[in-house]
Protein: N-succinylornithine carbamoyltransferase
Amino acid sequence: MKLFTSVHDVPSIKQFVKDALELKANPYAHQSLGKNKTLGLVFMNPSLRTRLSTQKAALNLGMNVMVMNLDKEGWALETQDGVVMNGSTVEHIREAAAVMGQYCDILGLRSFPKLNNREEDYSEDFFNKFVKYCAVPVVSLESATRHPLQSFADIITIHETWTKKPDGKKPKVVLAWAPHVKALPQAVPNSFAEWMCKAQAEGMIDFTIAQPEGYELSEDFTPGADIQYNIEEALAGADYVYVKNWSSYKEYGKVLTYPDGWMMNNEKLKFTNDAKVMHCLPVRRDLELSSEILDGPNSLVIHEAGNRLWAAQAVIKAMLEEMNK
Amino acid sequence: MKLFTSVHDVPSIKQFVKDALELKANPYAHQSLGKNKTLGLVFMNPSLRTRLSTQKAALNLGMNVMVMNLDKEGWALETQDGVVMNGSTVEHIREAAAVMGQYCDILGLRSFPKLNNREEDYSEDFFNKFVKYCAVPVVSLESATRHPLQSFADIITIHETWTKKPDGKKPKVVLAWAPHVKALPQAVPNSFAEWMCKAQAEGMIDFTIAQPEGYELSEDFTPGADIQYNIEEALAGADYVYVKNWSSYKEYGKVLTYPDGWMMNNEKLKFTNDAKVMHCLPVRRDLELSSEILDGPNSLVIHEAGNRLWAAQAVIKAMLEEMNK
Amino acid sequence: MKLFTSVHDVPSIKQFVKDALELKANPYAHQSLGKNKTLGLVFMNPSLRTRLSTQKAALNLGMNVMVMNLDKEGWALETQDGVVMNGSTVEHIREAAAVMGQYCDILGLRSFPKLNNREEDYSEDFFNKFVKYCAVPVVSLESATRHPLQSFADIITIHETWTKKPDGKKPKVVLAWAPHVKALPQAVPNSFAEWMCKAQAEGMIDFTIAQPEGYELSEDFTPGADIQYNIEEALAGADYVYVKNWSSYKEYGKVLTYPDGWMMNNEKLKFTNDAKVMHCLPVRRDLELSSEILDGPNSLVIHEAGNRLWAAQAVIKAMLEEMNK
Structure:
């Protein structure tokens, strides 16, 4: 693996989940792989789970890690070509990325969308230029439109908890839109949908998305998903409910009005098959998701966050193995 | 040891000082203890000595270290239960702490008081919730009311320098309030008092506290201490003077008026038994403590800061040993 | 080597370049040298290349690294002696430096000039006090007047690319002033000039400096350099052109008016001997240096940034060897 930016970089989800769970069972078995190799983690935006889990994953593999909060420790980067740099940008991404590639064997990059211009955000211009110019393998730590390490951890969590039940039935997974006070990116739901659609195609799950009118995700990310507008109907028989807010894709970056009843709580859980509840975190308690669920037996959110480590470790291990070929 | 937040977590100061000095004599003897273990250092406030000495201590023990300046790199945490999170807090401490516990074997936390509400600060609500929800051993890197790694380094320094004198007499240790321009927490003096009172109970020292009227510490931290209001009388025969400013506990968080003469200088030193002078640093020169002392032979401040390393290493080592039981 | 702040700390450039290129050929051969040794990197200003390359260099040598962005994670330092610290400075450099020296075997320091007062900046007061009080070996990560790790990487790059040509001729190296929108320090050009003048004295190169009237560097840094005011004449026959902006030394810290034609581009390159073009980065594209050069075959800027690693590694290795004597 030379690039990890979406589910399209993963030949088989089933196999990749298996790899991750083997690492979870035996975290330190591959430390010679990472010896004298350095992972650089570059953040253009804040991070808690992603930074710590990816750093720990690399340490488990025997690597060194250098963290660079480029939004705080560095300076403004230019991404446009052909401009005279006589303004506020101090360095062009062509040089900045190429230089970081000189000191690191693998780079991770986090770069959020601005939510002003859909074409610009969905072009992934910044991320793609970084990949192009750094000239080393790159792991997405969340880009403008995707958060694949999160989605990988999510499918690991579903697989891990479901296979303890020996009934052979495929789980019904519902991505359920939830309210928020801020306009959030579509990166997490896009990515979750994309991974679940592929997992559905691999026969692992059945996948439903529920959201109010106007909050439909781009169809590029939802091939084969069952799209619903009534949350209670969508939840019927659900085994996993993945709660998440996102701003509108159609009216790009906007927070639209929506009918009552989209916060996930115990009342809603009654419609499900005693579903496990997931969220990528950070979660706004009692706005997106009720405290009663988060503090109760149906919540998987901490377990799911813990699996971020094994997702990252499986990705980095695959890159190190590719490098050693 | 599963928790290090105060002297109450330490069965015997004498033994713990001995452990620390053995590490100082042989810093790298226990590197197998920390192999594949990770220390997470979480800062809600700035730090210099604490961050570097604790990081180095963990490295000496063979651990990995991940530093998280949550005040700068993260986001605002909610601590209250039962609130709808539709305001400025992005994540609840229940989730944030639990997640960090997923990636770290031991966590260190720094969290200063706000100095607005005594009950709130002295409840140590934030710190205690972090400990409760992270579910791994926690080292205090200074909380609202205590700074135990500093106090441990202080008693190490006193023991180490005193035992070179073979006369058998117990040293007289004086905690001496000093002026400052800002309202500072009581964490360092509370903690120093608490450790010295226990050291006095263990027969290691005699302990006196001197401060102007209105600056009395909470009695919870000063059992058995000799409390004085006249600095010159308090200094009589002192072997160690621990200089420190703090704001009022009674009129909580306030800087009260005080009589002249509380800055420590060579004139004051004449009242002592050629006392060694200590300060936790950072120190305001010629406001709290004179330059002539800081740059002269009676100052222990750098030596004392150096011992922060061995204090931290003894604490982390005790936690690793508990973990391996 | 106990100090690395200028070319004056280097007995022979030729030998030091040879050492660096041996490390480049065999980066991990000296890991026992750094075992249980810690490098502390202290930044008073932002850094990208310097931070990552120096961190990686120390890791290659088996050291631990602790990074401290003192401008962001710490507090304001006092440097003047004899002042009552009742203002905004929280800690004196005497204590701060001494404390950092307690936890680190080698320290690196970055501290830019303020460009207000030439005497103050050129006295290197802050840097020299840090060196004095920390009491451990110090590597300059760029001071008010010099950036020696950059200059060392520059001469490595020139030597490495030139010696592939077997004609025996010495290369002509031209330091060429270029436009910018901000007032920049003289640290990089001072340091480059100083290293090139010594390399010229060692018979490695011929050295020319070209700048508009008023932009002359201090003569302390340019002994033996050929100083030119006409950029086209200066470029005649050049083998290497080192492009860099700096503010005036004479009218200290000012951006003076200058005639057109100082941006380096392909038109200018025609005057040279198909010169390789260098820049310390970050570079303002199409203001200092044209995109056509940066993206073309004559640019060495990324290669040169890559050599920062081997420059840092050679310096740190020399310090570790001195320590082990």
Notes: Chain B touches chain C through 33 residues (CB under 8 Å). The radius of gyration of chain B is 20 Å. The mean pLDDT of chain B is 96.
